[in-house]
Amino acid sequence: MDDNGQRIDVYLSSKTSLSRSSVQELVSSGAVTVNGMAVKPSYRVRMEDRIQVIFPERETATLVAEPLPIEVIYRDEDLIVVNKPPGMVMYPAAGHSGGTLMNAIAWHADRLATVGAPVRPGVVHRIDKDTSGLVVVALSDEAYFGLVSQFKERTIERSYIALVYGSMKEERGEIELKIGRSPLHRKKMSTRVKRGKPALTSWRVLERYSMATMIEAKLATGRTHQIRVHFSALGHPVLGDRDYGKKTSLRLNNIVLKIPRQMLHAERLGFSHPVTGKWLEFRVPLPEDMMEVVRALRGAFD
């Protein structure tokens, strides 16, 4: 092939409608793999190379208000705090044009912030689709910038409840491992990276079972999939996590307990109101699907 030996950014630019700089961004983000491995923009293509490009999802252009049932914990003219149910995506994207948390908030709120429009107005943080619990969304631009500042300064307090596989040896501890994009799987994160971002998770044991542990985890940083990646790195993945542990069932007293999703719940959220300065703090109990697993674990342990 005449292209043999070309830089991969030059090669892909010539084969697609993308500019060389756009290709370089895709390569650097890990969206381009050669023979299943991430490469650098300077990589030289070879005759037998199998090149795969995963293009980023494109956002839909509009946010449609939908009367979806969500639990509103707090709301005023500047912000809204909701208890996101498991299985709900944060905002519209390719494959999820509706049925998202932001579609619901657009219905329940009288107004939305302009920052982040059209489909992510006021979004200052997010939790994964299969994680349940507390989310705050700004409804005014002033609140948006105030909350973003608090996240940046790490003054917002967040606590999660997780069921992790196995028995934690200690009663409490800290996990300080850098997190970055996995060199093998573009959509996954990993602690086994050369250039990761600092990440700190503190934790303590709440309950112990025969094959699992309930822990409270507090985030000092907010890296993508941080709790899931950190506990997986310790050998104690979150139960039901299909990306970082695959512990989707447990055998308890000759009964197979199926784990419906990752057992992770954003239980507590505390922050200063970005407009009034008043300290706000919220807690929500574990959802029923997670409590069913807890009851089964307790029963097997007794």
Automatic annotation (TrEMBL):
SMART domains in the cross-refs: S4
GO terms (BP aspect): enzyme-directed rRNA pseudouridine synthesis
Keyword annotations: Isomerase
Pfam families attached to this UniProt entry: PseudoU_synth_2, S4
PROSITE patterns in alphabetical order: PSI_RLU, S4
EC number, as in UniProt: 5.4.99.23
Start and end residues of each RNA-binding S4 domain: 6-69
GO MF entries: 23S rRNA pseudouridine(1911/1915/1917) synthase activity; RNA binding
Classification via InterPro entries: PsdUridine_synth_cat_dom_sf (IPR020103), PsdUridine_synth_RluA-like_CS (IPR006224), PsdUridine_synth_RluC/D (IPR006225), PsdUridine_synth_RsuA/RluA (IPR006145), RluA_PseudoU_synthase (IPR050188), S4_RNA-bd (IPR002942), S4_RNA-bd_sf (IPR036986)
EC class of the enzyme, as a word: isomerase
Similarity comment text for this entry: Belongs to the pseudouridine synthase RluA family.
PANTHER family recorded: MITOCHONDRIAL RNA PSEUDOURIDINE SYNTHASE, RIBOSOMAL LARGE SUBUNIT PSEUDOURIDINE SYNTHASE D
This protein's name: Ribosomal large subunit pseudouridine synthase D
